[in-house]
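Record pair follows.
FIRST:
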Amino acid sequence: MKRIFFTALIGLILLTGCSLPSAATPTPTQPAPELMNFILTETPSPIPPTPTPAFTPTATPIPPVFPAICTDPQVIGVIDSLRNSMLTNDGMLLRSLVSPQGMEVRYFRYGTPITYTPYQAKFLFETTYQANWGDEPGSGLPKKGAFHDVIVPELARVFSQPYSLHCNEIRHGGASYDVAWPYNRDFYAIYFAGTEQNGYLDWRTWVVGIEYINGKPCIYALMNFFWEP
C-alpha cells in the first residue's frame, strides 16, 4: 500500500515537472510528418513485475552524468509510471513522463528514431499514425505501424515478466552485435533475461533515457535491444 501511495505521489509530482502544455498538432517528428487519426484501444490488466534475473547476463556500463540518478527514488517512480502507462494505456500518465524537449523512440537499435512531444505522447495509445520504424533484422522488410501496435506490446511484454533494473548499465543476453547506447547521457535498462526453454534467446532489454528538467527526472529516449538472427 505504501509503494502504491509513493508511486502515485511521484506520478503527481512528475505530471507538473516534466510536461509543458503545447498547442502543437500531435504529429511525431519523422522525415515526412503526416496528420494523425485516432481510435480507441483496449486496456490490458496490469501484472506486477518480479525483478529477479533468470541467469547471469553480460553488461555494458558507462559512468553517470548525474551520479544521483542511480539512487534517486524519483527515477524508479518514473519507470514504475512508464510501466503503468503501458499496461493501462494511460496517455495522460505517459505525457507527464516525457521530457519537454521530446522523447526519441527507436524500435530497432539502428532503426528510424521518432520524436514525440509530451502533447503527442498523450495520444499514442489512440493514434493510427503509421510510423516507419526501420527495417527488420533478418528479413530486411520495413516495420510500419502505430505506436500502440508496435512499441506498446513489446514494452508491456517486458513489464509483464520478471525483469531487473540497471542504472547506466545495459544488461543483455547473447547478441551478434555491439549493444551500445548512442547517447552520452544517463539511462536505466529494463532487462528481461529470457527463458530456458528458448535458450535465453528471447531476452529483451528496453533502455530508458533519463534527464532532469527543473530538478525532476523525465524520459528523453526509449530504445529496444534483442537477439537478432
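SECOND:
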Amino acid sequence: MALIKCPECGREISDQAEICPNCGYSFERKKSKVSSGRNKTSTGMILNSVATVAWVVFFAFIFLVLGGVHAYATKDIYQTTYVNPFDGVRTPMYEEESHFIDLDQVDEFRDNGYEIEYVVGESHFTDILSPTIFFIELCGIVLICILGFVIYRMKDSNNRMRLALPFIYLGVTIITMVAFTFTAFLLIVTALGIPVILFILQIVAAVKYISGARLQSIDVLE
C-alpha cells in the first residue's frame, strides 16, 4: 500500500482510500468527473467525425460530380438599331453573349469587357462570391476537422494546449460558418442548408470538447 497526499488538506493517506479521513475529500467523485470528461470528449469526437465524413461527401459532390468552381462571362453585343416608324426614335438592340469559362480565362474575358460571375458546377448549380474566398473557407473546414481529431488524441494529456484547443476549434468553426454564410449563401440555400447543419454539429462538438477538457483538467489543477 502506498501513501499519497490528499489534494485538499495535504495529509498523507492510503492510495486505496475513497475518502480522506481528515477533510472528507472524495476521490471517487474526482474519478467520476474525469470519467465524465472523457465521455464528453468522446461524444465531441463522434460529432466531429460525422461532420467530417459529411463534409467529404459534400465537397466530393461539388468537385467530382458537379465539376467544381467555374466562371460565367456575359456581355451585351450590339446587333442593330430599331427605328420607331412613328416618332423616329432610334433604339440600339443588344443581345447577351455568354460563355462558360475556366478560372484561368477570367482575366482575358474581363479585359474584353465581359462581366464575370463565379458559379459552382458546370450546369450553373449556384453562384458564389469569389473562388479565392471559397477555397480559403474550404481550408478552414479542413482545419476544423483536423483540430477535432487532435483534441481527441490529447484527451489524456496534461499539456495545457488540451484546454486551449477546444476554444480554438470553436472560434474557427464560428468564423468559418459566418464567412461561408455571407459569401456562399446561395450555395447553402441550393444545398438545402446542409453546410449550416454541419457547422452547428461541429459547434456542439466544440461545446462537448470544452466541457470534457474542463472535467479532465481536475488532475492537472489538483
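COMMENT: The chain has a mean pLDDT of 84.
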